[in-house]
Known about the structure:
It contains three helices and four strands, in the order H-E-E-E-E-H-H. It is an alpha+beta fold and about 160 residues long. A four-stranded antiparallel beta sheet has the order 1-4-3-2.
Amino acid sequence: MENQTAPAANEQTGPMLSIQSVYLKDCSYEAPKGPRIDxxxxxxxxxxxxxxxxxxxxxxNEVVLTVTVGAKQGEATAFLVEVKQAGLxxxxxxxxxxxxxxxxxxxxNLLFPYARVAVSQLVTQGGFPNxxxxxxDFDALFARGMQQAAAQAAQxxxx
Length: 159
């Protein structure tokens, strides 16, 4: 019977990633001309996503997902929205690679739906048509970033 209880004890003390809280850390909205649009509403949308993390306490990390969305109608900026959606995550017993992967993929996947709602609400409250961000594949973005870092490391230092 002792062998049956040992795995349960290992699971409790093994690697752990859990979310403690999700919150809006910062946001900004700019619409230089308000919702006055010349011609048909057919904006060019730019999207920039960035993830950062900092240690708040041992085993407690704050992960911040920054989403910046700009809309241009012709040459004029229609709106610019930046949302910093944050979360506190307990990360216990993770390897350095697992921690990097959690910060680059798992945490942003949990935070993105909140950022998506915040962006949509800000744009709509600004008087523009309903706007919903498309889904983001953070796993693919993380893999691409790792490949780029490996390629730069393989090239070595440049003088």
